[in-house]
Amino acid sequence: MSQEAVQRSAEALIHAWGARRPRVAVVLGSGWSGMVQGLLDAVDVPYADLPAFPPLGIAGHSACVRLARLAQSSTEVMLLMGRQHAYETGDATAMRGAVRTVAAVGCPIIVVTNAAGSLRAQWPSGSLMALSDHLNLVQRSPLQGWGGSDRFVDMGQAYDPDLRRAAQGAAAGLGVALHEGVYAWMMGPQFETPAEIRMLQRLGADAVGMSTVPETIAARHAGLRVLAISLMTNMAAGMGVERLSHEQTLKAAALHEAQAAKVLHSILSAITI
Ligand code: HPA
Fold this sequence. Notes:
Layout lengths: L2 H15 L6 E5 L10 E8 L17 E7 L5 E6 L4 H4 L6 H9 L4 E10 L9 E9 L24 H14 L3 E8 L8 H9 L4 E3 L3 H9 L3 E11 L10 H26 L2
Parallel strand pairs: 1-4, 1-5, 5-9, 6-7, 7-8
Antiparallel strand pairs: 2-3, 3-4, 5-8, 6-9
């Protein structure tokens, strides 16, 4: 993926949008697609028409960029509907071009959403967590292979404190708990072993998942402000009674989709004021 592909993708989007521009971008993870309800004036551009964007990922995602307005605040949002995970190809750069395109169209903020396993007994399936930080135990980066000294990105405050504060205010306004914690990225696609989960707990993780971290690193490199939110879809391996599977994740995600959507709409309105 070249910078030229990013430029061509940005031009294609701007052509489709006319004078409209997004104030915030959202990467939609499992359990978050309910937020497409209640959006106005949607314009879709398929990833296939955007050379910096990845080919279609796993089933359940329709791969397109949607520009739309939030009904409650008229905020213009750019939805990245469909992500390629690093576990699909072993390539942590999978979403780099898409994230850089967000910056190239002049959008300053990206909200990265995901489904995650909970490492906190008191945070059951359906709980929401804003990332305060992450653990990149995979030790891969979307910046491997990138030149220049700007690749040495400061990750001291990867998840923007002001955006997190605004998100807390929005969730509180709805009476919904938005926890804060550390997300551990595991490559997958297999779920973790109970021993791995005990290790992650000792290392300070509160949630575990297979996405988000490469996107956050690429976004910080591109100069975007980042907010990331996990929807817990299960207790992590060894902590609950259920057998972990992709079907179980999708089922739990569907159960909590409406609530997650409501909170996300409110957060998007709050952070773009
Ligand atoms: N582990 C990793 N990724 C996940 C999980 C999990 O338990 N649940 C949802 N995504």
